[in-house]
Amino acid sequence: MSFIRSNKIVAAVLALLRIYIGYRWVTAGFGKMTSGGFEAGGFIQMATENSAVPGWWAAFLETVALPYQGIFSLMVMWGELLVGIALILGIFTNFAALMGIVMNLSFLFSGSGMIDAQMATAAVFLVIAGNNAGRLGLDRWILPFLKSAIIKQHKKQDSEDVVVV
Question: What is the spatial distance between Cα 93 and Cα 127, in angstroms, rounded to a whole number?
Fold first, then answer.
């Protein structure tokens, strides 16, 4: 496990994988945004009527997603675009990969093709790799900066909480 989480060669392979997955997300999201006609309602309705969709998922789609299809349409477009950008840049890589997995699984549960399963499986490697997946990206600088800022803030709050009697 330490090999996938710390090896520099693995980091380069993971960078190629995350850039490829990110490119797929960006093109999907950008295509939906620029087409001007993306509406998730038809897909959601079709999924609720599909016998291959698990009953619990169809119930969720029918009671939550379908009534709020406009919000779900925006979430899909922006989610795809932002996950893609984050993966390409290597910023908050683990979170972006995890959100990509969530989207892929929701599409898969809704009856879409196998490409979602393949992308979800590939993104699992990014999550397992931890920080090594973003080592050749902006995570290399942003995560240590955020960690030190949080530690400084925590120490500052601890020193302010000390009551002198």
Answer: 8
8-40: string of b/e by CB count within 10 Å (b at 16+)? eebbebbbebbbebbebbbebbeebeeeeebeb
Vertex 46: Cα angle to 41 and 48 (nearest 5): 95
Query: What residue ranges of the chain have pLDDT lower than 50?
Result: none
| Predicted TM-score of the model (pTM) | 0.88
Helical packing angle, 8-35 and 69-89, nearest 10°:
150
Distance from C-alpha of 93 to C-alpha of 143, rounded to nearest angstrom: 10
CB-based contacts of 105, cutoff 8 Å, min separation 6: 116, 120
Distant-in-sequence, close-in-space partners of 71: CB < 8 Å, separation ≥ 6: none
pLDDT at 113: 72
22: nearest Cα among 80, 61, 73: 80
Distance of CA 150 to the CA centre of its chain: 23
